Amino acid sequence: MLFDCIIVLANEMDKNGKLNLESISRIRLACDLYFKNPFVTLITCGWNYRNDSNLCIGNVMKEYAINLGVPEDKIISEVNSRDTVGDAFFTKINIVKLTNWKNILVVTSDYHVKRSSIIFNFIFGRGYEIKVIGASIFNNTEKYVHENKSLKAFYKTFSNQINADDNVIFERLSTLHPFYNGDLHPKIILK
Prior knowledge:
The chain is α/β, with parallel strands linked by helices. Helix content is 43%, strand content 14%. It is globular and about 45 Å long.
């Protein structure tokens, strides 16, 4: 299947913008896939999550891809997302819907494929083909325990929702999700 875009999910970086091994593995895999199909657009995700830095990890991932040879005009940074749900939601409403892309490839880590697939398929809904692949070597029991806990929280936040209505998703994010409702970080506001 040919994809319209490759969405690469960030993991972590230090205060100077040095990506951790997991983020590097994800962006390298995404770039390798880009070079096999240079007509796609690469989307890097992630906000300014560190209190000791003013760097958005999505922009740092973009710079890493540029240094690997991906043309700058083939990369879009989505810097509103604070987690996987936000990665899906904000890439959908701010980029994918505006371009009318339908075939989406998501790149993450191996242990994160199942949860990412569930979240992206729910958020994007019908009419989109979503494939999720993961950079290898990062799976371990602790990560799978965290993934299961996070998936339960996702189901709780979006309980009773069958279809992915963007307005309902935003309402749930802005009222129920601690990364977006003001409990842990500033409340998210759509412009």
